[in-house]
Write a structure and sequence with these properties.
2 helices; rod-shaped
């Protein structure tokens, strides 16, 4: 599966499918390992997309009679 092309929502949905399949415990070892490997890739993809979204979020802060934007990443 081309993980880099998946949206966050599609990656999360696929990850949920993988978890259900692994929890069922019906797949052979090789298939389970392949699913686990795909799942790890999807977790990394989702985490990267969340990190990118967080860095883009701006907080409007009133000050000096106007508004300014601050990166959330700047928050401690």
């Amino acid at each position: 599966m081309a993980e880099k092309q998946l949206s966050f929502e599609a990656a999360l949905a696929r990850l949920e499918e993988i978890v259900k399949s692994l929890e069922a415990g019906n797949a052979p070892l090789d298939s389970s390992l392949a699913l686990f490997e795909e799942g790890v890739g999807l977790v990394r993809l989702c985490s990267g997309q969340l990190d990118a979204a967080e860095s883009r979020i701006k907080i409007l802060v009133s000050g000096d009679g106007g508004m300014r934007e601050e990166d959330m990443a700047g928050e401690g």
